[in-house]
Amino acid sequence: MITKKLRRTLVGAVAAGAVVLCGSPSAHANTGNERLTLSSGRGSVTHIDDGDHFMVCDLKADGAGVSGALWEQFSDGSATIVARYDDGGDAGCDQITYDIKTGHTYFMTLRWNGSPSSTVSESMYIWE
User: Fold this and answer.
1) How buried is 44 (Cβ within 10 angstroms: 0-12 exposed, 13-18 middle, 19+ buried)?
2) Do the Cβ atoms of 45 and 108 come closer than 8 Å?
3) Which long-range contacts link 57-63 to residues 24+ away (Cβ below 8 Å)?
């Protein structure tokens, strides 16, 4: 059984690793919809500010979907996943809703699930 302290440490390490693997997310205040597209063009996730919807789309018919997460980052540098999203390559896109709170910092991550896949491909801040 993992203790709360160890779990927090592991979550912080994973979040820090995500930022290291993909570079520092670009920071900016959200002024509307924000879109993150994989540099390979294989997928995207869009934060739709009106209603806080997250639409994730697999953009290539290559047999592999895309998946990602919405992270909340805290002032001590730690972060935790608050929502997950994925699209398995079916027609259209999939969507989730998560209430973005004013004054909190979040970032989105997105990865392609094909082979070879990377742990985290792309990330960006969506709200500060």
Assistant:
1) buried
2) yes
3) 57/87, 57/92, 57/93, 57/94, 58/87, 58/88, 58/89, 58/90, 58/93, 61/89, 62/89, 62/114, 63/89, 63/114
Tokens representing 128?
Answer: 């500060």
pLDDT per position as a tens digit, 69-90: 999 999 999 999 999 999 987 7
Region 4-127: CATH code: 2.60.40
Amino acid (one-letter) located at 71: W
Which residues are paired to 85 by β-bridges? 68
Which pTM was predicted?
Answer: 0.70
- The domain spans of the chain are 4-127
